[in-house]
Structure prediction request, 127 residues.
Amino acid sequence: MAIDINQLAERIADAVEAAPELAQQLVENPVATVERITGVTGGYDLTELFGLCLARLAEAGVDLSAVDLGKLDLSAIDVSRLSPDELLGLAARLNVDVSKLDMAAIASKMLGAGGLGGLLGGLFGGR
Prediction:
């Protein structure tokens, strides 16, 4: 049976809305927290799920100001696929302090995953 990522996102957003402390657990250990909330052990795209959950939480007006993004597990999410502008907008709507976010680590992941590095290689590389 295929997993409906929208249903997963809704279940996670509902759980976080009911118990905002789950948001910090999602930041620190997203895979285990998703499994604990939904019972699903894989078969979904965590990066897509992350974005969908944030959007749903922002729509609901949830206050996540207690979340410490300094503990974000960057190994679990492919940040090169996320829109920085969209994420900053969602963070503002959720009252999340992004000042603790390790931007150097995020930039490094984006460059290593073909983000800007891929763009520069395409511009200056061979034909």
About this structure: The chain has one domain: 5-101. Confidence is low (pLDDT under 50) at residues 115-127. Helices lie at 5-18, 21-28, 30-38, 46-60, 84-93, 103-112, 116-124.
